[in-house]
Design a protein that fits this description.
The protein is an alpha+beta fold. It has helices at about 5-10, 70-90, 140-155, 175-180, 185-190, 190-200, 240-250, 255-280, 285-310, 320-334, and strands at about 15-25, 30-40, 45-60, 105-110, 115-120, 205, 215-220, 225-230, 235. It has a five-stranded antiparallel beta sheet with strand order 1-2-3-5-4. A two-stranded antiparallel sheet has the order 6-9. Bound molecules: adenosine-5'-diphosphate (ADP) and magnesium ion.
């Protein structure tokens, strides 16, 4: 059997690799994300060391025993998510510039029969993006919103071949179990309509799909930039899905309610600058008009998932209820 070190050497062309500290274990212990050093030497014999992060999942041994894995749907969603992440880094990540930084892609590999994945990326810690935050201040929030605006502008109109046809980890079609677990009522009845409004938007881009604070890497030296990681749920979508979910990941209900307009204004200001630079053919006022209308739909769509997945979740609060209600009222009036 090939070891992880051998695979990493094969796919990166390194002479040797030293596997280092584990950052996190993945998928019920079937994988890890860990630091490593690639060692290479050039034609003149100069040795070079490259700090990397290896995201590695191997489910080939576990596949014969699907019990205790959750449902088949959830298993398939996970398998697809690693294929999508690999495709994103291989085929799309190079389009991200300094304003929506992502780790440089080095190499990746998929085992036969969807048995596992190895993704080798530049180590962001070595580039100064070594801060992870659970509490963020206004400046951090703006930096992340600017990242989102630049990412959305970069991929405006993207077909997303090889990624999720509809991005986010809570997309309705991939969450039948959670829909079935939802309490009966108007949100459940309107789940499809809400999804259709979002998927039917004229302006589609790539959404990160899991843009919570924990998936941003911050730098103390460069507070105006962040790098995002974790592209398992990247796919086509309206940018408001990332914005609503990001806000829900870092603000209390009172703060989200109080700051909503200011944060949306900031995001759209950044989006305008980014679209002018990266998608100049796009009519920005049409884009802004459409997406502002869809902000509550994106929030209600996420609440639909939460109320099936974790009914008492703290994010299902008065602010969420009020937004969801406004969406349901709009749909009823139609
Ligand atoms: N290229 C990288 N450089 C440095 N740290 C990274 C890198 N990629 C991931 N990480 C760290 O590892 C954590 C887990 O990686 P992630 O891809 O988000 O895995 P998961 O899908 O399990 O959340 C991230 O939150 C981040 O802190
Ligand atoms: Mg993550």
């Amino acid at each position: 059997m090939t070891t992880l070190s051998e695979t990493v050497c094969q796919i990166t062309g390194a002479d040797s690799v030293e596997l280092g500290k584990e950052i996190q274990s993945l998928w019920s212990g079937y994988g890890v994300i860990q630091c490593a050093e690639l060692r290479t030497s050039d034609d003149q014999g100069h040795r070079r060391t490259v700090p990397v992060v290896v995201k590695h999942i191997d489910i080939s041994s576990a596949r014969t025993n699907p019990r205790g894995w959750g449902s088949e749907t959830s298993h398939q969603r996970k398998v697809r998510s690693y294929q999508v992440e690999k495709t994103f880094y291989e085929c799309f990540s190079r389009q991200c510039n300094q304003l929506c930084l992502v780790p440089d892609f080095i190499a990746a590999h998929e085992k036969p029969d969807e048995g596992g994945w190895v993704i080798v990326l530049a180590d962001l810690n070595a580039l100064g993006f070594d801060r992870r935050k659970s509490e963020v201040d206004q400046r951090d929030i703006q930096t992340c919103l600017a990242w989102l605006a630049n990412f959305h502008a970069t991929f405006m109109g993207e077909k997303a071949t090889g990624l999720w046809p509809v991005g986010t980890y809570w997309h309705l079609e991939t969450r039948p179990d959670e829909l079935a677990a939802m309490p009966a009522g108007p949100l459940r009845q309107s789940a499809e309509q809400i999804d259709h409004r979002l998927s039917g938007a004229t302006f589609q881009t790539l959404v990160h799909g899991d843009a919570k604070v924990a998936n941003f890497c911050f730098s103390d030296d460069d507070r105006d930039r962040v790098s995002a990681v974790d592209f398992q749920y990247v796919g086509r979508g309206c940018g408001m899905k990332d914005v609503a979910y990001f806000i829900s990941s870092c603000l209390s209900e009172q703060a989200a309610s109080r700051q909503q307009d200011a944060l949306l204004n900031f995001y759209f200001q950044q989006l305008q600058i980014a679209v002018t630079a990266r998608a100049p053919g796009v009519n920005f006022s049409d884009l802004e008009g459409e997406w502002r209308e869809l902000y509550p739909f994106a929030w209600a769509d996420f609440c639909r998932f939460l109320s099936g997945w974790s009914p008492g979740h703290w994010k299902l609060n008065a602010y969420s209820d009020q937004i969801t209600q406004s969406v349901l009222d709009q749909l009823r009036r139609k």
